[in-house]
Amino acid sequence: MKHYDCIIIGTGPAGQKGAIQAAKLGKRVAIIEKNPVLGGAQINTGTIPSKALREAALYLTGANQRGLFGATQQVKKHITIADLTAISQQVIRHEWEVIRRQFERNGVELLWGRAEFEGPHLLRVQNADSTEVLEADKFLITVGTKPARPSSVPFNEQTIFTSDEIICLDRLPKTMIVVGGGVIGVEYACIMATLGVRVTLVEGSNRLLGFLDREISDAFQYHMRQKGITLRLGEKVSKIEEIEIQNGKFHHLVQAQLESGKTLRAETLLYAVGRQGVCKALGLDKVGIEFDDRERLMVNEQYQTNVDYIYAAGDVIGFPSLASTAMEQGRRAVCHAFGVCDVGNYNTQLFPYGIYAVPEISMVGKTEEQLTAEGIPYESGVAHYREIARGKLLGDDSGMLKLLIHQETHKILGVHAIGTGATELIHIGQAVMALNGDAEFFINNVFNFPTLAECYKVAAYNGLNKLNHVR
Ligand SMILES: Cc1cc2nc3c(=O)[nH]c(=O)nc-3n(C[C@H](O)[C@H](O)[C@H](O)COP(=O)(O)OP(=O)(O)OC[C@H]3O[C@@H](n4cnc5c(N)ncnc54)[C@H](O)[C@@H]3O)c2cc1C
Ligand SMILES: NC(=O)c1ccc[n+]([C@@H]2O[C@H](COP(=O)([O-])OP(=O)(O)OC[C@H]3O[C@@H](n4cnc5c(N)ncnc54)[C@H](O)[C@@H]3O)[C@@H](O)[C@H]2O)c1
Q1: Which superkingdom is the protein from (predicted)?
Q2: Confidence (pTM)
Q3: 299 is in an annotated binding site
Q4: Residues 454, 388: contact at Cβ < 8 Å?
């Protein structure tokens, strides 16, 4: 029987970074993957495909150029699904290769098959050709999640689908209903609307992306409506079915019945109401680990499950369920497993959110609503892209960046941005916050010009000027 120092289950971002970290510590490490491709949701169905589709849509339609050059910059008149998928497949293939080479270079053994615990320290790996039982001192479970697929929804992969299948559509529909206004729902609604698809988005709560600062989510909802997206907020879908109507000729449509009595019809429907774990298949009863009703695992601050030699990281442990945080969790879990304590301070509250909608949104730290609820005195400082030279050059007149500044200490408590480059811009604020910086940092330092980073200066002036009147 082969023996390893560490076995990692799943090659998504949490597994990848955990495996490389274990190899760098000189450990004998194997990583197991049940799918025929590497990279998990990050590379194959989630982060990279959706972001590649977004880039392709923005480029081919010229949507990111319109402000400055007018609406005539469309690169291609009739955009086909083949144009879009060609671009994302190219990126996906490149990413597979990057991961494969990283494993090879670092001596990580890659084994293909479905992993299942057989007993303490024993894991069975089964594929179409063979079954093998492996032994290890430590394990890291990074099996991720899959889209929720209730049996009441008649999924057919072509007109009623989840985010796993949207990237395999064989044609661009004229109309789409998106059920769920979480990050997946809003990102795809924006991409499709950019491509000229008429989108109706149904969200159960009264507001999209309720974790965002209210001013930003209000601005975003305005943008979505401006793009022609119909928002049905505070509405729940009670029934989804395929129907056939005769209107001169036969049309196959999808019909969504809302609890309020409304009926929606479209050519296609994306169902994006959250994700579900895959722990049932792991044989966790053999090692004494339990999971919750959504098949998520509980871990402590070191990412240990209740069985101390079995760790878990990434989406399988729930919030915040991001590729970015999954990578760091995987690395930290392995460091702890092998007694490496010097992994640097990590403020688990201070990770950024990047939402690749159109426009981009990003945030780090607290929102105005949270600070108010916690009784923390703050002032806001705002910069609008239209008053920043780089914003004008980019043709983005509606972007903005907001700093939340402590009224007494001037420390930065939160940064919120919407507009071009928001997901990159946020890291300047994140670094200043992590280093316990204040608004004066932005005033007293010189930034490249013209850049969007100037927003930080303008927002700091704006906030500090307001505070001068409070003294
Ligand atoms: C549409 C979409 C867009 C997203 N966009 C972003 C984004 O822009 N930014 C961001 O940070 N995050 C984004 N995410 C979230 C991100 O993709 C996930 O947080 C991340 O992939 C989780 O990584 P993971 O390693 O935990 O699991 P996964 O990436 O899900 O990988 C788990 C792997 O484990 C394998 N596996 C499962 N069970 C077994 C088993 N029994 N044996 C062997 N292998 C097994 C699976 O096949 C899979 O390859 C997005 C997600 C989706 C769905
Ligand atoms: N850019 C990014 O970082 C990014 C992008 C995509 C996905 N993700 C990750 O993927 C995970 C899953 O995303 P998601 O959007 O599927 O889930 P989610 O849980 O974030 O959102 C689901 C939404 O559906 C709504 N909903 C539920 N039932 C409904 C019904 N019957 N009718 C109408 N609305 C209903 C909920 O109110 C909720 O707003 C997230 O946790 C996120 O972290 C991240």
Answers
A1: Bacteria
A2: 0.95
A3: no
A4: yes
